[in-house]
Amino acid sequence: MNKPLKIIAILLASLALILGLGIAYLSFVFDPNQFKSQLIDLVKNKKHRSLRIDGNIQLNFFPKLGVSLEKIKLSEFESTTQFAALDRAQVSLALLPLLQKQIVIDKVSLHGMRLRYQRDAEGKSNIDDLIKQDPEVKEAESANPSEKQMRFDIEGIDIAQSSFEIDDQKGELKGRIHDLNLSTGKISDKNKTPIKFSAQFQFDKPKAEATININTQLRFDIEQKILDVQDLKTQIAGKLGANPFDVQIDTSALHLSQTDSTSEQIKLTAKLSGAQELNAQVILNKFLMHDKDLSIAEISLQAQSKQAGASKQVDLKSSLKMVLDTQILQLPQLTMQIKLNDPKLAQADIVVPVTGQLSANLKDKSLNTKLDAKFDETSLHTTVQVQNFSNPAISFNVDIDKLNLDRYLKSTTESAKTDTSKEDDLNLTALKSLNLDGLIRIGALQVKNLKINQVALPLKANQGKITMNGIAAQLYQGSVAGSMGFDVDGNHFQMQQNLSNVQINPILVDFMQKDIVEGRGNLNLNIKTHGKRVSQFKDNLNGSIRTQLSDGAVKGINLAKSLRDFKAKILNKTDQQQAANQLEKTDFSAMSASINFVDGIGNSDDLDMKSPFLRVGGKGLVNLRNSSLDYTARATIVNTSTGQDGADLAQLKDLTIPVRISGPFDKLGYQLQFAQISSEALKSAFKAKAAPVLEEKKKELKEKVNEQLKDKLKGLFGQ
What we know:
Elements: H1 3-29, H2 36-47, E1 51-53, E2 57-60, E3 64-75, E4 82-94, H3 96-99, E5 105-111, E6 114-119, H4 128-131, H5 135-143, E7 153-154, E8 157-168, E9 173-184, E10 187-188, E11 192-205, E12 207-221, E13 226-240, E14 243-257, E15 260-272, E16 277-290, E17 293-307, E18 310-323, E19 328-341, E20 349-361, E21 366-375, E22 378-387, E23 393-404, E24 436-447, E25 450-462, E26 465-475, E27 478-487, E28 492-503, H6 504-512, E29 517-529, H7 536-539, E30 542-556, H8 559-568, E31 576-579, E32 581-598, E33 601-604, E34 608-610, E35 614-623, E36 628-637, E37 656-664, E38 669-672, H9 679-716
Parallel strand pairs: 5-8, 6-8, 23-24
Antiparallel strand pairs: 1-3, 2-3, 3-4, 4-5, 4-6, 7-10, 8-9, 9-11, 11-12, 12-13, 13-14, 14-15, 15-16, 16-17, 17-18, 18-19, 19-20, 20-21, 21-22, 22-23, 24-25, 25-26, 26-27, 27-28, 28-29, 29-30, 30-32, 31-38, 32-33, 32-34, 33-35, 34-35, 35-36, 36-37, 37-38
């Protein structure tokens, strides 16, 4: 070796020896713990937080420059409350790259890290001061940009047994993440590294607990700013409320860059168990994000729920477009099929195909959708607008040409009694969050065999109060107008309805299967009720029902026929009991009556029925508590020259005869209470009406006897 090279080699060796001896000396002599107080004061002055280091600070100089700390605590901003704590932390840097102004992080290790995050309803958090950049630092960075790009090279990251407490009032999130573990392989430019992450979640808002496990491989390209995610498998299992759930997210490849992000397919599957079983699968095909535009060639959703022997299934497909700047999302070609299977329905299987479109503004938190459906004999068109997703205000319009609910609802005419002891209390508190304002229009509606046309149902719901003001419809040659309301607090229900110029008989026959009254007229209802259970609604019913009818008949009894039978039994005065006979009826030209209800007991005392030969008044009770009637009508014969068999009842003119109608609603009986007519009234009526007839009969008999006597005398004397 020539002499200059030897000199250079000796100088380098000497320099390395001196440097090594210096580092060794610093390692033995230098104690970084003497700087604890300066570090604590620096944090106090710069960040207004209290730093506490109960463990040792240890520095390593060769072959790697590193620092390790133990038992560290940091307070909240200008407070003694603990914000963060750390059992042990270690960070090491490769030494030689520092000579080239490159930072190569060799290893990061954090054990027993505990953080506490808080944010109030206005959005102010306990880390705002930490993430706010110092203006001096920002100015220095802009004035002295790095001459060389930082080299990104981490031997590995190890985070173990860490936890986070979260109390986010604005995001309505409160809970704890614990047993957090993260481990990686070598993370460097253009190097594929495995990633493993696990943690447990326990939240009070929303009520949920879960364990999450993520396994994947990452590849970074620092220069091109590209991240490739491969073989991603994410599993989240836990409980939502009291119901177990399991969610899996998978993709074979996800490419992320500043300009383009793509994936051939991302799949999510979810399962919720419990009283209601739910299974769902979402597949995103051909995911593409270019610049600030997101598109998905096809979103496929399949969801199925099962509960108490019934099932619901939804199949949805659509393309998706979203502009990230404006945060406007669109589903321009939405197709959906809803399948219902419920043995409790008259038609167990129902299939509803739906087409339409949807757009949402995620920045303004608003949504607009138009949907069309055609199923069975029904065509439906609806528009829906939603404002404020966190507390949605929903406005809508629904137009239906024809809807036959009886096609789907089983008849409840069976007389089986409900065991109210097993009936659950109504729990409708969830309706308090409902905020609705809309209109439902139906061209032809059939429900409970009641046939209604041109139905208009304005619906509003706010803070647990649900109202339908301005109800209008056409039914049975007349019209209906009114309102209904329900208040979740106390389950209070009220209804005002006016039926004008309707045919009452087909309403009663179709809706109540009661063929008891004929006629045309008006019916006014003004009732209210409440109850913890549905069965209590009739017990607590208050209000009134009023009716006015003309040119009709009361079915089940023929008063004219019954009174003729009475005339034949007028002397023994026995009551006549008979069951209702739908072939019999009593005609009337006008009838009005009202029922006033107090706690399920209705009182009626103003019956006024007029027919050509009768005037009928009456009073009695309608008992909704036990579904029975006890009513006494008082029929007075006023005209015997016309009307239904009137001339045959001339002898009973001006008599008032009680007719008792009583029994359960489904088995009413009629009793003509002849015995309650006083003897003197009977005698007077009979004498006044029968005497002229008897005198005439006596005269006819006398003349007849005289004629017969003459004939006998002639025979006797042979003339």
